[in-house]
Protein 1
Amino acid sequence: MKKVLLTGFEPFGGQVLNASWCAAQRLHHTVIDNATVIAAQLSCSFHKTHGELKQLISRHQPDVVLCLGQASNSSVIQVEKVALNYIDARIADNDGVQPIEQPIINDGPNAYFASVPVKRLVTAVQAHQIPVSLSYSAGTFVCNQLFYLLMHELTLHPQMIGGFIHVPACEQQRLLHQHPFMSTAQVVTALKIMIQRLQQPQDEVTQSLGTLY
Ligand code: PCA
């Protein structure tokens, strides 16, 4: 039996919901094929998320860690490839902290790649006609920091794999903030497909999902 730790964020930027947690919480304690999902909410805080994530990893000892965040300007699910060692926050986090042009870890590598098979996840979701893309930037805010710290942490746990997925705002947020949106039900379906795909044969995806610019 595999264990998947699925994290979502609390609301941030003055919003009352965060689509990432709306989706993640629906999968808490569900079993998808042979994987049990543990969902947990993280603070949208530059200072708190690392400790929260470390504690969850050491308590649950998951096989897979998938962290989710909300990308309010996006209408598609974005499977992130790259975490940068760089923060340049356009708004303050929920503690009022707004780092500008700072490394996440002094002398850490400039970037980490996700260790989940990102192309397989994207093509599996695409096959179900759910809007999804491979993304090469997780931004320069709390999500990018969490993704970077996750991949840094997993260097100490080589048996675990991890990645980060940005999801669009949910339907309730469209009414309040005019964001592009995707229903929570559709995001949950996409996450289930990805968790199933992680348990299936790891054959190569030979097509390019890259970008020209
Ligand atoms: N999205 C923000 C932080 C928390 C979240 O859900 C981001 O993309 O950095």
Note: The chain has six helices and nine strands.
Protein 2
Amino acid sequence: MKPLPAASAWTRSKPPLLRFLDNCLSEFSAETSGHVADYIPELGKADPAYFGISLATLDGHVYEVGDSRVPFTIQSMSKPFVFALALDLLGAGRVESAIGVEPSGDPFNSIRLNSENHPFNPMVNAGAIACTGLIYDSKGAEAFEQIRLALSRFAGRDLAVDEAVYASESQTGDRNRAIAYLLKTNAVISDNVAGVLDVYFRQCAVLVTARDIAVMAATLANRGINPVTGEQVLSAYAISRTLSVMTSSGMYDYAGEWIYRIGIPAKSGVGGGILAALPARLGLGSYSPRLDKHGNSVRGIKVCEALSSHYDLHMLNRSDDARNAVIADYDIGKSPSRRVRRPQEREILAAHEQEVRIIELVGTLSLSAVDYVSRRLAGRPRPQFVIFDLHRVTSTTRAGARLVAEAFEELAALNVTVVLSGVRRASKEWNTLREWTAELKNVRDFYLLDTAIEWAEDQIVYRYGGSIDFHETTELAEQPLLAGLSEEELTDLASLCTIRTYQSGAKILASGDPADALYFLRSGAVHVTLPDGIRLATLTAGMAFGEMALLEQTRSADVFADMAAAAFVVPLKDFERFRKQHPRASECIMRNLAQLLADRLIVANAKVDILTAT
Ligand code: GLN
């Protein structure tokens, strides 16, 4: 095995995909078979040595090697984009009734029509001329500009026309003229054959680079959103139908072989370009003018073959494990909220711990992921509350969102409340989901998972007859930390305390301050937070805070009043004096403290365990 590169070499090294494209470039440059197209005389002038490759990812990164910025004419690679444009401009019904979607098995310039005297599909010349004709019918003199603008939006920059190539094809394109007249006699295009052909020849002469083609392909692979500009260029419907015809007919009479071997929807042009769009993954553009007998770039095909086989990208060779979507699944017995509960509340929650179920999800909520989650839920005792934590969910497919809505409906019928946490309010997924669940009364959401769990716990406490009274006042005797102290000891301790009151929101303790007093919450609620904002605990009347002063000299967390609160406060030096005078009480307190800390540790361990075990 080769030694790993030194650290400095590694930081300067190329990303592996770029290295892969480099290797393709050097390896396939040796390939000199094929011929530059010259039936359009101006195309024959192209330098056969040109070779450029570019790959665009769906997060908008563009890799480029070789002559990736050399302009050449788009030719037939314009066909998928113009078809997609026609679908959106004129409506699918109109376009689909004029042009078929069956592979012809014929060369690109075949003059044969199907049994209805319509073009076989929009990827061969007859279908493409018909498509342009439909746009011309509706837009007239504006037609070409509309097409040029659409192509430009796919590329993310303004594209121009190679006037020489346009003029050259316009003078010599008699075969296309013949096709257009045939379409006219069959009423596929209207009268103005010359006008339609003029637009078609111009659209074929639009100048692009391998880089442009990669971005255009990536836009197709990304449901019509240009990953570089972020623009939704055309509808997802038009894009998916376009990819469909690219799959069956994009490579002319080599289409079957292409999809069998390479398995990536693609389109070629006689200018030497190949465009390949792998849905949800990437877009590839290559430029090398020598063509094989089908009119496809020889080196371009080699690049696509290498990409598909090296990275195993055949689109029909995929799998997915929906179980990865669930990273944790537990109930409040295993991992309660951070709210420190009083004994009565704790008892109720312990008796009903299975009634609040928490499922933490990750990644994309796809059809299979949501189906898997719904079966997991059905397989166990039915909880009253199901909390779905979506902090780590990055997206939802439409199928996933549909299934989520249906699952929520099912849960509503069973009187199960659904609580969502971690939903970013502005996200598209949230809006779709909200639209579909608008009628449901059983869906709540809280941004923080802990808040969601705390809320569900409160509901369980209420449902089983408990009460949560933040305004009740508790005495020192009710403090778990002081359990076991005699009346006399408690009276002595009380004489050392002062009662302090705090307004809602007040900062009671600040991390970094000297830890010089203990606090026994008499009424209200406070929360303990780390300086970075992580909430450690919510405490209510009857609980101690700042008790860590017994173990450490500086405060490690902030404490805020959640509402108006009052506390008995004992300065540490007085408390230490009290402990000396009452050794039995002191031992009690330290044992209670050890118990409280142990309880906290058990909860913390359970939380770590949940995330590492699932
Ligand atoms: N303009 C060319 C033609 O119609 C496009 C053909 C192609 O790229 N395959 O002949």
Note: The chain has a mean pLDDT of 92.
